[in-house]
Amino acid sequence: MIKRNQRIRAKLGQIAALVLQQPVLISSILVSGLVLGVRQLEVLQPLELMEFDRMTQLKPEDPPDPRILVVEVTEADIQAQKQWPLSDRTIARLLSKLQSYQPKVIGLDIHRDLPRPPGHAELVKQLQAPNAIAIYKLGDTDGTGVPAPPGIPKERIGFNDFVLDPDGVIRRNFMYTSTQTEKLYSFSLRLSLSYLKDANIGFRANRNALQLGQTAFIALDANSGGYQNIDAQGYQILVNYPRRKVAPQVTLTQVLNGEIDRNLVKDKVVLIGTTAPSGKDLFFTPYNPADRKKALTPGVLVHAQMVSQILSAVLDAKPLFWFWPQWAEALWVWGWSLVGGMLAWRLRHPLSLGIAGTVAIAGLFGICFACFLQAGWVPFIAPALALVITGGSMVTYQLFHHAFYDSLTGLPNRTLFLKKVDKAIGRTKQDDKFLLAVIFLDLDRFKFVNESLGHQFGDRMLLAVTQRLKASLRSTDTVARIGGDEFAILLETITDVNQAILVADRLQKQLTLPFNLKGQEIFTTASFGLAFNQIDRYYQPEELLRDAHTAMYRAKALGKARYEIFSTGMHTQIVTRLQLETDLRRAVASMTQGNSHEFLVHYQPIVSLTTGKIAGFEALMRWQSPEGKFISPAEFIPVAEETGSIIPLGKWILQQSCRQLGIWQKQFPMHPPLMMSVNLSGQQFSQPDLAEQIEKIIKETGLDGNSVKLEITESMAMNDVESTIAIMLRLKALNLRFSIDDFGTGYSSLSYLHRFPVDTLKVDRSFVSRMDNTSENAAIVQTIVMLSHNLGMDVVAEGVETAPQMEKLRTLECEYGQGYFFSKPLHNEAATALLASQPQW
User: Fold this and answer.
1) Residue 679 and residue 784: Cα distance in Å, rounded?
2) Does the predicted model carry a pTM greater than 0.90?
């Protein structure tokens, strides 16, 4: 069961990794699938139909069709005839008058199933004309229907071809259908066929289209364009409304009074119908959809639009509406979903994203409208919705990703890592057979790489490290970037500590291999800290990460490129160290404001071994806490170096010691005058304004620079030889003197030593204190003395604790001695008293 759960988690992890690697692609597929699913449920159909209407209104209009004439029965005509419905005689007179003008076909768009006396016989006679077409209404499911006027052959009647969309707007023309016993033609198709009869244009019904000559009227599918699951029975096409005023219009009264030009009628399609509101033959069209308070369109004008469309398609080769197949529309929606995701992924600034999104929507509408002008109904709402949703999901994803994942490496960040650790702790509580381990690692030389080769190079290295870490771990393990060059690893379901140690060893070996970054090999190592949960103790995830971090710092302190396992004592040391750092920062802040007396300067005499008298002092920093406890320099100086506090401390001790030296030189004049040795830290030495700071202090205290000796270590001098020499020469111009402290313990190169403008070498106490024990140490001291003299330098021996040591140094011709044999470091009053006693050794 446990292995099965592990496999499931591994599979889920792989799926999550895929989503994280291809978020735009995955999101666009999911969103487009969702939009297409919603579209199939007809949710988007009303919006697509509204967009169809809007494009119809925006497109340029064609001039009225000269092949058609509309004879409208207006409200004024009804009032003039003083009855409604019109009498059969009135309509018979109208037909007779029109026939005298020789129309090609007359369509009576008025239902006359019942006689309207007087004049019924006259009307029947007029309807017998071979070019007269009448209309009837097909029976609905409820049995309602309106038959054609009696006595007219079937080939000269057509059914009312209006199809109302769900919103009540006429956008479709029901042209033709057939039953087992008969073929049924629409009113507009009958009129068109009658008009085209002399042109010998054939007509046939294929499986999916009506063929008029060379023109195919392809039937609508249930899902064509923006439609979804419409009733597409028979042969239906979309009405491509070419114009608001489809044809010239004259009134019933004008025709009856002979007030029209016969050329308007001759060889034309004449449509007779009512436009009067009282006739109630009014409909919504794309020009006045149901949600707009505009005048409705009379049915006769809608029929005129349909006839005009058929004739224009057959005779003028005007395009009929075309649609993409469902798979093409699906790709269309997915493509724009992908565009929205890519825009949101690339453009992070809200203003840029807003502008780009607006441009994309406008571009989508422009493409759809361009297709619409060519009679193509390409969906707009679905792809626009997919674009917006995918873009929004990508913005949401990025907010989530930025909250829980590292932007450079794509790894989980600290927040998400702690959440995973918390869940893992919960699982181990349920099954105490397994442990979990947190490994914290830090690259040992990353800061050097980053500063010397640049941050872009450093980023590439971090990416390479990420790849190696992921390749070396199980799919169930979690690696996260905690910050900078720090990574954390969560190992779940391990049975003992050795498994985590093996992982740390494997990762260490992988990271010691060279990184080839753009042709340049980079070597690095890493320090690891390991922390494990204990079954009998409840851990907070932050505690485990903190413990692993503490162990990593311990590994660095012990030499780097190794691992350490956390123990309770490490935490105590870290807490002590943090408290020391806090106290140090507070004390330095108070010192710089002149409100603290915690820091003191003690002075240790430097004795001339030639005269046996005090030649000067070395200034040493001491720190006494407010509670009166003295804190060892070995404790706080390294912390001051790491935190940068050494810079204000170093400046302060230089000021204090120079001021005290000025007092002593006036109080105890001697030749040569007393000197003062002051240590410079590495951070001080690298300050660009160091020379100016020291020059200012020398001037303020009135000292001769020759009385001040600045002490630097071998490691500082050798860190950057040329830069060190340049800085020393600038300070030498102030008449200052230099000594190299703890000589013999560092890594000086004798080939460089003669180039340094150094006045003194200080022999480290480790050699001096053991001169009596081994001849080798005495030989080392003798060698340093001889080297110094050959280079024109004098020597100070540190750590002199016995009279035999002093005498041995005199024998070796060492100029100066310093150590507890002469005096321990003293505060200024005790040192003054010592000078006043004029001791002689």
Assistant:
1) 21
2) no
